[in-house]
Design brief:
Elements lengths: L2 E6 L9 H9 L6 E6 L5 H6 L3 E9 L5 E5 L1 H7 L2 E2 L7 H10 L5 E9 L11 H19 L9 E5 L13
Parallel strand pairs: 1-2, 1-3, 3-6
Antiparallel strand pairs: 3-5, 4-6, 4-7
Length: 171
């Protein structure tokens, strides 16, 4: 079984690089898991072709900065949150195209809410930096499931507090 955790972002665009920080926080992958980094959503398409399970880690605009979301593809589209793209093809569009081309990987998003980047630089805001451990733990929990990727849950934590907030509960 091929499992991939794919971080997408632009590390020189501030919080848009939060997914790479999450990948760094994971440490060495368990056997059978590949950790990959891409900067452009179109690079996701071939990475889904021969994978059984895929976790995409990305920054999204929407929600409170620092919130960590566990979503499926349909959930991301319905949420109103937007992924960031400087090349016109966003993550959702790339994954929909991969599906039309025959990719059938079980797919989940771990998304960190951010404010739109306004400056260049490799620094993360306090909110994005605080979300990294929660996002990494969410991925570790997903990978530990022997029966597949658990059903998406929505907001799984707030990076501001670093704790996990159950869906529907006040942070």
């Amino acid at each position: 079984m091929t499992t991939r955790v794919i971080a997408i972002g632009q590390p020189f665009a501030g919080d848009d690089g939060v997914a790479f920080a999450v990948l760094d926080a994971l440490g060495p992958p368990p056997p059978g898991v590949e950790l990959l980094r891409v900067r452009d959503a179109s690079a996701l398409i071939p990475l889904l072709e021969d994978a059984d399970r895929v976790v995409v880690v990305d920054a999204v605009v929407g929600g409170a900065p620092g919130d960590v979301h566990l979503l499926g593809l349909d959930d991301l589209e319905a949420s109103g949150m937007t992924d960031l793209s400087s090349h016109g093809l966003g993550v959702v569009a790339a994954l929909r195209l991969a599906r039309r081309l025959g990719a059938n990987a079980e797919l989940r998003f771990v998304a960190v809410s951010i404010e739109p980047p306004t400056t260049l630089g490799e620094h993360l805001s306090d909110e994005a930096r605080a979300a990294v451990p929660t996002a990494a733990k969410t991925i570790v929990d997903l990978l530990a499931s022997p029966t597949g990727l658990p059903r998406p849950m929505g907001v799984v934590g707030s990076g501001v507090t670093g704790g996990v907030t159950p869906q529907g509960a006040d942070p």
